[in-house]
Amino acid sequence: AGQLAVKGPTGCRYLLADPRQADYVRNGWNITGDTYVRDTEGYFWYQARSDDMIISSGYNIAGPEVEQALLTHPDVAECGVVGAPDQTRGQIVKAYVVLREDVTAGDAKVKELQDFTKRLIAPYKYPRRIAFVDSLPRTPTGKLQRFRLREIATDNADS
């Protein structure tokens, strides 16, 4: 996985005029903040925003990929996935899950969701920690605020 950089005759002019955007331009290349992988045929595939990538034991894990897997479980209404600090792995995958009505949270449900995720995506990407929550932080337009989940995960690194 790597960051996407694009270059063109006019692509960075507006960025260079704004000092706050200087970090996004390197040698005329616009650093988009998106992470992609290239397959064996040379095609590029979007993974996630760079700040939504989780690096766990050297593996690059796209939080949205884990979210998509969890959302296919019939008991999951909503979820958000972020990296949580971990002394051994650097980060681990942590999922914040809103369960559907009449579904009971607990250790058995954590194991069920972990096993379910391992069957859908590479097993190393499963959420090692799952927190059941009543709601997820969202913007007024409904966009998930992963930065807030990252803050919570950092503040509660041991839970």
What's this, in brief?
The chain contains 4 helices and 9 strands, in the order E-H-E-E-E-E-E-H-E-E-H-E-H.
Unreliable parts: none
The share of residues in extended strands comes to 35-45%
CATH superfamily of the largest domain: ANL, C-terminal domain
Number of helices: 4
Helix content: 10-25%
User: How many distinct beta strands?
Assistant: 9
CATH class of the largest domain: Alpha Beta
Largest sheet: 4 strands, antiparallel
**In whole angstroms, how far apart are the ends?**
29 Å
Order of helices and strands: EHEEEEEHEEHEH
What's the pLDDT, averaged over the residues? 87
- Given helix and strand content, the structural type is alpha+beta
Reported by name, the CATH topology of the largest domain is: GMP Synthetase, Chain A, domain 3
How would the global form be characterised?
Answer: globular
CATH architecture of the largest domain: 2-Layer Sandwich
Number of domains: 2
Computed CA radius of gyration, to the nearest angstrom: 18 Å
Q: Could you describe the 3D structure shown?
A:
This protein has 159 residues and is α+β, with helices and mostly antiparallel strands. The chain has two domains: 2-38, no CATH class; 51-155, ANL, C-terminal domain (GMP Synthetase, Chain A, domain 3). Helix content is 23%, strand content 35%. It has four helices and nine strands; from the N terminus they run βαβββββαββαβα. The strands form three sheets. Strands 1, 2, 3 and 4 form a four-stranded antiparallel sheet that branches. Strands 7-8-9 form a three-stranded mixed sheet. Strands 5-6 form a two-stranded antiparallel sheet. A hairpin with a 2-residue loop joins β5 and β6.
